[in-house]
Amino acid sequence: MADLLEIDSISASYGRIQALQNVSLRVPEGAIVALLGSNGAGKSTTLNTVSRLVPVTAGEIRFDGEPI
Description:
This protein is mostly beta strands.
């Protein structure tokens, strides 16, 4: 089964504050997933980075094989 969403070593910052560092994950086509973690772990920042609300400072995000 092919990966629909691929996140490869993304990093993101809020100004000088590093919020994500080298986050990677794969979501196969047809899968239902949950992103779990404690407060301040980067769940919202990860989703906001995938949605392009927070800019990626390093790494790559691909949807259906195409960079976004």
